[in-house]
Amino acid sequence: MKKIKLIFSFILMLVVATSCTVEGINNDTALLGTESSANLNKIFDISSDNSGKVIITPTANGAVSFKVDYGHGTVSPVTVVPGASTTHIYPEGKYTVKISAKSISGATTEQTFPLDVVYRAPENVTVTLNKSIHNLKVKAKADYAKSYLVYFGDVTNEVGTPLSNDGELSHDYAVAGTYNVKVVALSGGAAKTEKMTPTIIYNAYGLPITYELATQNYGVGGTFGGVSTAVLANPFPTGLNTSAKVWRYTKSLGAESWSGTYSPLDTPIDFAIGKKIKLLLYATEVGKSLNVELEWAVGGTPANGVAVLKVANTVANSWEELVFDFSTIAAIPANAKFTQLVFRYDDSAKGSGEVIYIDNIRLTN
Questions:
Q1: Which of 121, 197, 198, 239 is the most buried (most CB within 10 A)?
Q2: pLDDT tens-digit profile of 23-43?
Q3: Interatomic CA distance for residues 53 and 65, integer angstroms
Q4: One domain, residues 170 and 81
Q5: Is the previous residue joined to 264 through a cis bond, with omega within 30 degrees of 0?
Q6: Distance CA 54, CA 75 (A)
Q7: Total domains in the fold of the chain
Q8: CB 255 within 8 A of CB 226
Q9: 355 located within any domain
């Protein structure tokens, strides 16, 4: 009987001890349920390239997950694990980002943070202009530019024409003249950068050539073999030529015998209109020939080197009219058109420093 009493007492004590242990665990769980995340904060990594990209990294002590509300548009909040980030594209503007942190117990802590996205002004704006008579093509490039507005400068109260990155705009001017072409590089926000480029629009280049018109580009083409040229005030405004400006042709000392000039023509020399080219020449000596050579025939006929005439001057120190009659060359078709005019002087010898003056080049019958 005594043993039975001892066994019963031991069992009763065990039950009491077990009850106390379970009650202790229940008390600890209740305490765990009151814990929440502390020091809720964030890191905003805002891109500086005007892309609007913002990397958001939430931080907090004791958090097991975060929920980020971007504060922009209708995008739903996203869940982020500790140590991770989320990315969103923002237009320029001010936003309120809301971050909620959840603790291991399920308790949440919420806080809002201001976000200010500002786009930088575009930099290093470059404008490329390509002209063809009255047509102008415009390209633009800039760092941090989303797009551009182009103002061609020929309309009062002009509205800018949109231009994309890597795009090109084409514009036709009604008349020749000097225009200020303005390109505005847009950041995608309020910031912008402007660049103004004055440009001269010329009329089509072709005969007659008088060297008097501001609307003609007398600098087209180039020289070869040691020749230089310039348009300048007429140094000898007497006799046949009293015009204000003339063309100076200099064959420098030692210039090649085959040296000369070439001028591409927007308006071809059309033999259906006339086959004679007349011009005024001033030289300080007689007997040296001036070559007039017509090249790059429309359709390829005749080939270069066929339409070549040489005429020597007969008067020194005075203006003289020279006539180049291409009807004397049978190989030239009656309806030939040429798109390049070439001059060469005294092609039988190297240059000795000759200077001649040419003016009033025209096509006649």
A1: 121
A2: 333 344 333 444 678 899 999
A3: 23
A4: no
A5: no
A6: 15
A7: 3
A8: yes
A9: yes
